[in-house]
C-alpha cells in the first residue's frame, strides 16, 4: 500500500459506516453505536458476546459469503456486509 | 535430520515454545488462527503491531510463522504425533482459504482459554459481553464496548478489563467481585512464599488497582449481577449482595442504568485440539508431566489448557514444552521449571480464591436462557432432566448445546446443572437420574 486510506468504508445492509484501517467489522459497528446485527432462533437481537470467535453470536454475510465471525474479520474498504437471519438448519 | 516441531497457538505459551524449540535445534512451524502473534495477552492494534514487530521468534529463519492458519482437525496415527490439518487464508472465515496438512516430529498444543460466563436472566441481550470481549475491543481495536459500563463476575481478570475500559474513555461504574472478602483473603494470603516468583503478576495487578483508584472506580466484593434488562439491548442491571455460596441476600438488590455489562466467571480451557489428539485430562485440564508431555507420545501442551495461571506461567510452560519437543537435553531449564511450578501454585490459589459459589443457579428463572444458540431455557432443561431421560435424549429433546457454538459457551453450565462431569462435552454422557430436577447438585468449589 503506497499510503493508507484515511478510513475504511463499508456498508451494512446498504447503510455506509466508516472505521479505522485494521479494525474488525464488530469493532466498527460498536464504535458506530450499533450493538446488535444478528438474531437468535426466536428473533431476539444479538451482537458480540465472546469477542474471540468462540460463541458464533456475531455472524454476518460479507460480500456474499455467509457465516463470517464479525469479531474476527478485519474490514476491507468497500466490504458489503449484510446481516443474516437465523433460519432453521443454518448456523 | 533436524526435528520439526509444530506449535499451535502463538500466545505467551506458544511463543515460549517456539523460541525454546528453535534454541534446542529444531525447525519450527508456529501457527495461529489470528493474523497477529501474541494471543490474548499481547493484544495491540494492527498499526502498532506492524510498527513494533514485537516477537523476534516470528522473524527467525528457523521458525516458519503462519498467521491466519486455523487447525481444524488432528488426525491420529498409529505411531508418532497426529497430523495437523490446517486451513489458511488472509481473511477470517473468508473464501479462498487453502487447506494443508503438516507432519511433525513433535506437536505443542497451546490454544489457550476463553471466558466462562454463568447464565442469568437477560444475559443474551446485546451489550452484555464477556470481560474478554471488552478487553479485546479496548486493547486491540481502541473501542469502548459502551459509555456507562459495569464489570462483574469473579477473578483477578476483572481489574485489567476495567483499567482498559478507562483507557478507551468508558465510564466504569464499578467492578463487582462476587467472591466475599473473606474468601479472597483466605485464598490470597495463605502460604505467601508460593507467590514469590509471581511478584511480577502481583505488581501488575497492583498497578491496575491503582489505575481504578485514580479513576474513582469502586471495587466491591460479595456482590454480583443477577439480572440484565432492556428492550433490544441492555439498559439496566440488577445487582445483589451475594453470600459465600453466591445465593442472593434478599432485599439487597439495586438497579443500575448501563449501556454495557462485561462479565466473567473464570476461564474455560479450549480442549477441542487436545481431546482430538487423544490427550488425557485431569480435573478438566490437559494432564502433563514435568516436561509438559501429555499422555500421547510426541504431543506436549502448555499455557491455559493445562491450568489457568496467567501469561508468565503460560510462557514458562511453553519454554519447557518447546525445549523438550525440540529435542533439548532433558533436565535443563531449572529456573524456568521453578517459575512454571510457582505458576502452578498460583493457579491453584487462584481457583481457591475465586471459586464459583454452588448456589449460583438460584439466579435463574424458568424462562432464563441457558443455551444461547438454541435459546433452551432453564425450565425446559429441568423438566427434561426430571423426566429421567438420558443425557443424549435431553440434548436431542431440548437442543441444548447443539447450536453453532457446539456447547463451547454453555457446556460447563449444562454439565453442572445436569450433574454430569463438568469438563467433558456435557450431555453427550449418561446422566444420573433422580435429583436432577433439583440443581445445583454437589458442591464443586475448589479444594
Ligand atoms: C479474550 C481474552 C482476553 C484476555 N486478556 C488478558 C489480558 O489483557 N491480560 C491478562 O493478564 N490476561 C488476559 N487473558 C488471559 C489469557 O488467557 C492469558 O493471560 C494468556 O494469554 C494465556 O496464554 P496462552 O498462550 O495459554 O493462550 P492465548 O494467549 O489464549 O493464546 C492461544 C492462541 O491459540 C490460538 N488458537 C486457538 N485454537 C486454535 C486453532 N484451532 N488453530 C489455530 N490457532 C488456535 C488462539 O488464536 C490464540 O492466539 C485474556 C483471556 C481471554 C480469553
Ligand atoms: S463474538 Fe463470539 S464469535 Fe464473535
Automatic annotation (TrEMBL), chain A:
SUPFAM superfamilies linked to this entry: 2Fe-2S ferredoxin-like
Q: Which UniProt keywords apply?
A: Oxidoreductase
Pfam families from the xrefs?
A: Fer2_4
In alphabetical order, the GO MF annotations are: iron-sulfur cluster binding; oxidoreductase activity
What is the protein named? Proline dehydrogenase
Q: Which organism is it from?
A: Actinoallomurus iriomotensis
Automatic annotation (TrEMBL), chain B:
Q: What region holds the BFD-like [2Fe-2S]-binding domain?
A: 369-419
Answer yes or no on keyword Transcription: no
Top-level lineage group = Bacteria
The record ties this protein, via Gene3D superfamilies, to: BFD-like [2Fe-2S]-binding domain, FAD/NAD(P)-binding domain
**UniProt protein name:** Pyridine nucleotide-disulfide oxidoreductase
UniProt-listed Pfam families = Fer2_BFD, Pyr_redox_2
> Which keywords annotate this record?
Oxidoreductase
One example of the protein's molecular function in GO is: oxidoreductase activity
Organism name: Actinoallomurus iriomotensis
Extract the PANTHER family matched here: ANAEROBIC GLYCEROL-3-PHOSPHATE DEHYDROGENASE SUBUNIT B
Question: Is the keyword Transmembrane in the record?
Answer: no
Q: What is the lineage of its organism?
A: Bacteria, Bacillati, Actinomycetota, Actinomycetes, Streptosporangiales
The segment(s) forming the FAD/NAD(P)-binding domain are 4-318
Amino acid at each position: 500500500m503506497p499510503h493508507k486510506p484515511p478510513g475504511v468504508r463499508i456498508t451494512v445492509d446498504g447503510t455506509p459506516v466508516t472505521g479505522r484501517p485494521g479494525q474488525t467489522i464488530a469493532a466498527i459497528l460498536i464504535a458506530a453505536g450499533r450493538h446488535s446485527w444478528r438474531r437468535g432462533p426466536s428473533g431476539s437481537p444479538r451482537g458480540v458476546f465472546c469477542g474471540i470467535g468462540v460463541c458464533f453470536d456475531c455472524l454476518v454475510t460479507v460480500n456474499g459469503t455467509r457465516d463470517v465471525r464479525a469479531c474476527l474479520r478485519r474490514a476491507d474498504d468497500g466490504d458489503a456486509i449484510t446481516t443474516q437471519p437465523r433460519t432453521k438448519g443454518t448456523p | 535430520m533436524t526435528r520439526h516441531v509444530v506449535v499451535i497457538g502463538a500466545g505467551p505459551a506458544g511463543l515460549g515454545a517456539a523460541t525454546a524449540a528453535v534454541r534446542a535445534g529444531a525447525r519450527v512451524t508456529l501457527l495461529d488462527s489470528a493474523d497477529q502473534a501474541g494471543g490474548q495477552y499481547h493484544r495491540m492494534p494492527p498499526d502498532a503491531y506492524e510498527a513494533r514487530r514485537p516477537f523476534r521468534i516470528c522473524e527467525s529463519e528457523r521458525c516458519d510463522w503462519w498467521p491466519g492458519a486455523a487447525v481444524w482437525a488432528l488426525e491420529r496415527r498409529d505411531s508418532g504425533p497426529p497430523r495437523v490439518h490446517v486451513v489458511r487464508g488472509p481473511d477470517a472465515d473468508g473464501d479462498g482459504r487453502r487447506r494443508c496438512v503438516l507432519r511433525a516430529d513433535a506437536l505443542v498444543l497451546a490454544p489457550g482459554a476463553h471466558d466462562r460466563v454463568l447464565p442469568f436472566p437477560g444475559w443474551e441481550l446485546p451489550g452484555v459481553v464477556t470481560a474478554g470481549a471488552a478487553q479485546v475491543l479496548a486493547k486491540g481495536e481502541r473501542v469502548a464496548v459502551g459509555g456507562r459500563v459495569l464489570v462483574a463476575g469473579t477473578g483477578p481478570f476483572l481489574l485489567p478489563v476495567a483499567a482498559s475500559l478507562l483507557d478507551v474513555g468508558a465510564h466504569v461504574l464499578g467492578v463487582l467481585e462476587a467472591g466475599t472478602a473473606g474468601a479472597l483473603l483466605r485464598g490470597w494470603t495463605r502460604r505467601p512464599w508460593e507467590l514469590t516468583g509471581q511478584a511480577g503478576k502481583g505488581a501488575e495487578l497492583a498497578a491496575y488497582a491503582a489505575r481504578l483508584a485514580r479513576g474513582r472506580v469502586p471495587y466491591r466484593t460479595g456482590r454480583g449481577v443477577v439480572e440484565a434488562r432492556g428492550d433490544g439491548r441492555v439498559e439496566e442491571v440488577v445487582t445483589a449482595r451475594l453470600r459465600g455460596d453466591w445465593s442472593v441476600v434478599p432485599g439487597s438488590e439495586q438497579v443500575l442504568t448501563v449501556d454495557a455489562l462485561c462479565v466473567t466467571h473464570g476461564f474455560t480451557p479450549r480442549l477441542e485440539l487436545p481431546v482430538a489428539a487423544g490427550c488425557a485430562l485431569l480435573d478438566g485440564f490437559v494432564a502433563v508431566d514435568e516436561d509438559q508431555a501429555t499422555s500421547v507420545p510426541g504431543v506436549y501442551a502448555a499455557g491455559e489448557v493445562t491450568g489457568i495461571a496467567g501469561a508468565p506461567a503460560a510462557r514458562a510452560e511453553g519454554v519447557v514444552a518447546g525445549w523438550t519437543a525440540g529435542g533439548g537435553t532433558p533436565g535443563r531449564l531449572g529456573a524456568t521449571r521453578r517459575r512454571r511450578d510457582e505458576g502452578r501454585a498460583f493457579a491453584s490459589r487462584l481457583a481457591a480464591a475465586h471459586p464459583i459459589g454452588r448456589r449460583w443457579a438460584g439466579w435463574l428463572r424458568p424462562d432464563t436462557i441457558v443455551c444461547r444458540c438454541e435459546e433452551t431455557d432453564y425450565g425446559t432443561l429441568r423438566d427434561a432432566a426430571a423426566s429421567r431421560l438420558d443425557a443424549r435424549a435431553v440434548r436431542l429433546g431440548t437442543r441444548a448445546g447443539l447450536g453453532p457454538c457446539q456447547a463451547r459457551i454453555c457446556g460447563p453450565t449444562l454439565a453442572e446443572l445436569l450433574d454430569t462431569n463438568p469438563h467433558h462435552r456435557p450431555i453427550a454422557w449418561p446422566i444420573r437420574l433422580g435429583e436432577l430436577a433439583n440443581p445445583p447438585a454437589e458442591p464443586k468449589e475448589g479444594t
